[in-house]
Amino acid sequence: MLNLSENNLSGKNFERIILMLWNNSKLKKLILSKCNLGNSAIENIGEGLMKNLTLHTLDVSSNMLEANCTESWNNTQCQGLFSLKVLDFSDNQSMGDVSVYHLLSALKNRVDADGGVI
User: Fold this and answer.
1) CA-based, 20 to 30 A from 50: which of 15, 21, 36, 80?
2) Distance CA 20, CA 93 (A)
């Protein structure tokens, strides 16, 4: 588990988190609550989830996420998204329904190892 809650991880500070997601094969739980994350951070997390299949819990609650923050998750191959058992976007009041729609669409388009749609 890595809990970085209540740290300012915007900008350059966040780039290390993305590299860790891309390269780490052991981390199961990542908590990024109250870290001043914006939409670009969520897009980068989506890119990290393209390669990370071990993360089971992702908490990005209480950040500064706005509408369309998960749009790129629907447009990329976020395979790690499907290994998540807990995904917390709570208390991101400007996120809006559109981001929830994109997230649900990405989950709906999940493909299993045999190529069949789940």
Assistant:
1) 36
2) 28
